[in-house]
Amino acid sequence: MNNLAIAPQTPGHLVPQQASSDDHLIELWLAGFDSPSTRKAYTSAINRLRKWLGAVGLRQVTASDLVDYRDSFKASWSDATRNQHLAAIKSLWSFGCDLCYLPFNVPHAVYKLKKPRPVTAERILTEKEMLKAIQLEPDPGAQIFLRILYGTGIRASEAISLRWCDFQRRGNRVFLQVQNGKGGQFREIGCPPKLYQELMARQSPTASGSELVFGVPYIHAYRWVKQALTRIGKPEASPHWARHCHAVVSHEHGADWHSIARQLGHKRASFTMDRYGHFTGKASSDYIDC
Fold first, then answer.
1. What is the CA radius of gyration of the chain?
2. E-assigned strands of 108-216?
3. pLDDT digits 0-9 by tens, 223-252
4. For the segment 82-94, what is each residue's pLDDT rounded down to a tens digit?
5. CB under 8 Å to 243, separation ≥6 — which residues?
């Protein structure tokens, strides 16, 4: 009988453990997102879920648990906020199933994201209101922050991440590079030349191109905007309202939906038009006299 060396075989069902705990899984999952704002938002969403679950681990979560959790969302939440929380949960479970840490992709079966409703009238500041908020702001830093939100339509999280080197001049035009937009996406957009000139006048002579333009945490910038809009009688407003105002006012002044979509970072102009189109032009009711 021949002595044949037989290599040891690893059973096919045995695979290296990819995540050792719920905390480890979440750490690995978050590491896959390039955008700091996405990581922050998704961390907040998952922390809220885990606090609601209490001692129940992710592997023990049932469909009934997730339905009950969805029903716990605040009535005041917008569709976009609800979708963000659901999307975070769906993403985590998909990742956990891919690593064979979670047994079933329960959220995929029970959660469907809603198409966001068009922005409603009470969330749209008029051009006059926006300019009044800017004019009444006594803090120069807060004032120019408001102006960049309104003038470019960028998100507050994008604005606080701006560096001096993100502004590029080409002839009479100024371009602004958003390095980490929503979902970690890069985009290059326009910036009003007058706003650019005043921003550059604020730059320290010793500042390097890599330094932050505003150098304040998000909560500080958020309070800037809240205080400014409360001053004009809009205490319920958020920084995103300046973005809404940019979209509507720029279209009223002649910008087409494709250029507005590119400016805002929307993938499709049809989405932008669905969000804001009912505020510009005429409605069918304008043609009825009764």
1. 24
2. 167-170, 173-178, 187-191
3. 999 999 999 999 999 999 999 999 999 999
4. 999 999 999 999 9
5. 149, 153, 154, 155, 264
